[in-house]
Amino acid sequence: MSFWFLFNYLLSSNFISGHLFSKREEKKTLTRSICILFFLIVVLSSCVNKEILDDVRIATAVGFELAENEELKVTAVVPNYMPDKTITNEVATETARINKEAREKLDRTKSRPYVSGKIEVLVYSKEISEKGLMPYIDSYFRDPTVGSKIFLTVTDSDIQGLLQYQYGTRDNGMYISDMIEHNINVGSLPTTNFHDFLNSYYAEGKDPFLPLIRQIDNEIKIIGNALFKDDKLVGEIPEDKLFTFKSLMDRKTSQDSITIEMDKEKYAFLHKIKSNRTFKFDNVEKTKEFTININIEGLIHEYSGGKIDKKMAEEITKKTKEQITSQAEEMIKTFQELETDPLGLGEHVRSHTKNWDSKKWYETYPNLNVTVNTKVKLTETGIIE
């Protein structure tokens, strides 16, 4: 008996009952019919989902690197949920000339095909990133089952080794995804995902960046950001400058932290930092002047030099301003030398300029005089008078 036959049967039964019984009985019959129909929908839906899950392998992470013969080496991770509620990671690797060929090879080696609908992260080697990522991203961009909020990363580690290692009892794809999301929310990583990468790639006056990760012992760590010119890797932001980069990238941030280097190998640790960034410019192509204002508020959590009095708090505030300003200006000069614009200065100028000329902008950008003004306010430091 088909679903639609039962559906029509219930409706017709209710119609007949409306003629043979009282309104009260009719209402009871209708309620009963609705309950049965709802039950059938739930049962049939659960059966369909179970059948699909049993027939496919759901990849949560896919890695791309070059094999020794310069062919593409693709590694896919599929979580296996065990009866004791632990998770093991099944890893398969194939080499091919292009991504689709590798995927077909992976399907042929297993009894069930791989699906992309639950991918959490795509990992690319530095070698592939230097050649250009779009040939390895395009198929996922065109796949409607792949979400726009998945993460893309670059690594200098062996990708097969990175993905096949068992990091506790967790799904490796979710492990990397959670780590990146955590560092965006309460760390020094600017907002980034698949959508952001594509938006920066296709936008006029902006270039993408991606988190740079590395396998260190039994864990994966974020060691910086990878900078791109179009889709090609051209440079890196080291880990100790991530906070400054995030302050330049994101219009507003919160819950960040930073270590400030003081004199004579002494350090101050600031936390619960909030920052606000604004751009200011006028007729850039003529004046070649661009100003970035950064306002920072935070708490002094620890100072390695001992107790913090009012004078020391003022010194820490001064050093914080100097460190962020100098790092930011040095960073922007590096961007100009690499001819990459991850901050999207060109995009901001374009959105405020009539008849914006991209050719003129790209001629102007390397010689643009960018001034960074930093204001720092440190409060609730627990100062000992």
TrEMBL record:
The UniProt record lists the keyword Lipoprotein: yes
Keyword Signal set for record: yes
Domain named Spore germination protein N-terminal: residues: 50-214
Gene Ontology BP annotations: spore germination
Keyword annotations of the record: Germination, Lipoprotein, Membrane, Palmitate, Signal
This protein's GO CC annotations: membrane
Principal subcellular localization: membrane
InterPro entries: GerAC_N, Spore_GerAC-like, Spore_GerAC-like_C, Spore_GerAC_C_sf
UniProt domain Spore germination GerAC-like C-terminal: residue ranges: 224-382
Membrane topology: Lipid-anchor
Pfam families (UniProt xref): Spore_GerAC, Spore_GerAC_N
Cell compartment(s), UniProt: Membrane
Family that this chain belongs to: Belongs to the GerABKC lipoprotein family.
Name the record gives this protein: Ger(X)C family spore germination protein
